[in-house]
Amino acid sequence: MSTQPLPLEGITVVAVEQAVSAPFATRQLADLGARVVKVERTDGGDFARAYDTAARGLASHFVWCNRGKESVALDLKDPRGLDVLHRLIAEADVFVQNLAHGAAARLGLDAATLCAAHPRLVAVDISGYGAEGPYAHKRAYDMLVQCEAGLVSVTGTPERPVKAGIPAADIAAAMYAFSGVLAALVRRGTTGRGGPVEISMLEALAEWLGHPLHHVMHGGTEPARTGVAHAVIAPYDAYPTADGRQVLLSVQNDREWRRLAELVLDQGELADDPAFATNAARVAHRARTDEAVGRALAGLTAEEAAGRLESAGIACARLNTVEDVAGHPQLAARRRWREVESPVGPLRALLPPINLGGSQEPRMGAVPALGQHTCATLRALGMTDEQMAELRRDGVIA
Fold this sequence. Notes:
Layout: E1 12-16, H1 21-31, E2 35-40, H2 60-66, E3 69-73, H3 79-90, E4 94-97, H4 103-106, H5 111-117, E5 122-127, H6 142-148, H7 168-191, E6 195-200, H8 201-208, H9 210-217, E7 236-240, E8 246-250, H10 254-264, H11 279-284, H12 286-297, H13 302-311, E9 315-318, H14 322-326, H15 329-333, E10 337-340, E11 347-350, H16 374-380, H17 385-393
Parallel strand pairs: 1-2, 1-4, 2-3, 4-5, 5-6
Antiparallel strand pairs: 7-8, 8-9, 10-11
Helix pairs in contact: 1-7, 7-8
């Protein structure tokens, strides 16, 4: 049986992007076969290149979000650099930008302007708070938006709210930009027209706030911060084990509580004790519930605790570190790791989680050096070596 091509083969994406939200969206388009031309500043490029040096001298954020792209370095403040960009956009299917508020419009790069000039183009504007409204001009970094969207208010302990440990606002915006591009391309296939796509980090993360938001809006109280415990189910928490690790378990109904009490806690009488027999009772007596579970698991290693819980049919998980995830046996068993090329050599990376049966494997291309593809791209636009040399001498390209 023949293998189908990747679904975005033949699609060209041009992106003026930085940090995470736009780069993560366009990286996923690249993984699915699109050609992605990443336009960067000549003086250092995407500022995420300088976040850290953890990936053998490269920034971990940049490696994560930018594989499989072509890097073209242009000075967009110079009319000649901006002209090159507009020529690239004229030949593209998709344009994505997440410049500061107002910057894209000043350069004629906002989605409305570009789609008016190029009816088949799908043009994406990613911003913190949207194009209008009282917050439109505010700076919008991930942690700031996490706070504005209420995510921090529901994350942490009763004593202290905390931000998510990943850039949740950036990732939410990236995922909606990614799906928005796919939807717009499908529509273009039936109508022949692309159109603008607008994504706001605040709106994306507010949608992800999900049930706490609906709970409060429709008459409920503000959700309590409970660490890794569940606010309305008990026991549903992480418990220390004898080897210094923690195992999280979840009891979803009273039948499971009976199995836990009899087979793991060795206290079958708790199954019928009015203080524990129902979830409402266990929540009301959460400290006593947690004490009983904690006492039983404290004498076991994490592996022993997980084995006993699984044998009893109780959902559980080890509280893994990031290093544990990098060596996770399930990811290894499903062969999810690959190597991608980079300016410092091969780097380990996860296969994208979209599995397209019968298709080629996702295209996990190299992480580009700044300006690595500038000359080849400009030459394809018809520019001579002499013209490029002049632009390089004037600092318009790099």
